[in-house]
């Protein structure tokens, strides 16, 4: 017999209601998150004979060494170990009543970016342990596969994930909206801390307190806002300051724009008064001609000459550049030379060079964003936190995290950060040099 912790009981309520189809449980170490997921799978397999469930984690090897062992321990305590057979070769648990639990590797491999390995998989529900270690697309693909015998059992699609604090999609999709009381009704988040679990040895709690500061804040205190990643280019406090740096002086005006088309990412346009971002316009869906027309309208209203407009020239943004005759920003083009020395700088591409320059500006308290919309503020903060050095342990040219990787971490494109980053192009192209280290 296993007695559930109060927060586990709370989670079970959501796992059995008719509203919730995505539950995130955890937010620290030792809160009983893996045990809860295993108990849920066991209950469902027993209750719905012939059902099929997924137990997933970033790497199958880790899943078998951790979550699967928790499953065996829970099964023994519940006295149901004789009701199933584990097949190592199939990576599956076969229940005698016909139910199955399929173990899956959900890592994003370069050879399988669309998770085609999941193929035509049909499942009744899913538990993904440490889902903060997978990308949001994997979560979405698994969710799309939940349809097996749902009508027969009278069930709705349900999936549960466990996690530790991480500044990626689990933060933006679950934790942050929950904290702001803006979480959609179909999603629920329950934070469980090690101190919630009276069954943990005191020595384990002490070991968590002896971890490095970053790990201790995340795994013991469940602090989602603490991020001491050495790869980060911008101090978190300085990111928050950009909305209160009203002392930043105005001057020459510019417009920067990151263009998207028909719902693919977002079109985000910014109007600048020197390093004061004074206006942000966004489109969820738009034609290239509509984006061009909006930029022309902003140029006229704010008196910005076309030579002071730069637009992302990759993809459909090139169409806007052609229509307006403005400057085009090509992310993967070579870095610009140092305006003072006329010497090349050691960056992988133009985008990386401009992001390093932006990081220097923000850390020096040189950027102000005039934005009263709390939702947009939060998005900008999250995207600016992902401005990190890529492959920092390797020698060679400096590079920031590639956009595709940032999209996977955030669960969306960093459109606002890209729009802000392009402001630095004018400082290299026409003005003076920032020292970017």
TrEMBL record:
Domain Phage terminase large subunit N-terminal span(s) in chain numbering: 25-217
InterPro entries in alphabetical order: P-loop_NTPase, Terminase_L_N, Viral_DNA_packaging_terminase
> Would you tell me the protein name for this molecule?
Phage terminase large subunit N-terminal domain-containing protein
